[in-house]
Design goal:
Strand content: over 45%
Distance between the termini: 16 Å
Radius of gyration: 17 Å
Helix content: under 10%
Largest sheet: 7 strands, mixed
Number of helices: 0
Strand order of the largest sheet: 1-20-17-22-15-13-14
Order of helices and strands: EEEEEEEEEEEEEEEEEEEEEE
Shape: globular
Structural class: mainly beta
């Protein structure tokens, strides 16, 4: 049984006048051969985008891309004809498939948007691009399924054997996460501080779980977590 912590302070970082981005795994100009992803999980970027700025139209292909807004609003446009605004409490999935163009902008003139950009390698290449956006189920002290391979329980559907859960824990609140035998886990602390076993994880930290079938998570202050169940 192994729990390996990836401290947020050790992540890669991109800084531009309009963007402050932290990379849990190698991304763009940040390259670390020891952190190229985990199983099908390829990218977790913690992005802060300045008011009225953002990522102009750019291409993607063969990637499942999830956007998870923590603060502010994120405006999405793509070549499939989709246009929407993503807010805290919602999850967006874009399957890039054989190729898609999209943009992600902060529509606010005075408020920074903070969001997690998550990339998952699909189980096949060249599929049809797709888009989905849904409100997340209640997450107060419980695990809410927000993305899955079959779209069950109102989750967005990704083209990979992955289940992504989200939860919000109040201080001193705890839960137990059970992983089926032979599965792998990644826990990302989006906000707050938690204790996993005897390890203390702070905002931005991640924990890689191998050979673990159950883990106890206790918040030492209000915390928001993402939990990835991976093949």
């Amino acid at each position: 049984m192994t729990i390996t912590v990836r401290h947020g302070s050790d992540r890669g970082r991109s800084e531009l006048p309009w963007l402050d981005s932290r990379h849990s795994f190698s991304f763009a100009d940040y390259y670390d051969p020891a952190h190229m992803g985990f199983r099908a999980l390829r990218v977790i970027n913690d992005d802060r985008v300045a008011p009225a700025k953002g990522f102009g139209t750019h291409p993607h292909r063969d990637m499942e891309i999830l956007s998870y807004v923590l603060e502010g609003e994120l405006a999405h446009r793509d070549s499939m004809g989709n246009g929407s605004t993503i807010r805290p409490g919602e999850i967006q999935r874009m399957s890039a498939g054989s190729g898609v163009l999209h943009s992600e902008m902060n529509p606010s003139p005075d408020t920074t948007v903070r969001f997690l950009q998550i990339w998952i390698v699909p189980d096949k290449r060249g599929g049809a691009p797709g888009y989905e956006q849904r409100p997340m189920p209640p997450r107060d002290g419980r695990l809410a399924l927000v993305a899955s391979s079959d779209g069950r329980e109102g989750s967005v559907k990704v083209q990979q054997d992955v289940s992504l859960y989200s939860t919000v824990l109040e201080a001193e609140q705890n839960l137990t996460w059970q992983l089926p035998p032979g599965r792998f886990g990644w826990i990302q602390v989006a906000r707050g501080t938690v204790r996993i076993g005897d390890q203390l994880l702070e905002e931005g930290d991640g924990a890689q779980l191998e050979g673990v079938t159950g883990v106890d998570v206790k918040a030492t202050e209000r915390a928001e977590l993402l939990l990835f169940d991976l093949a």
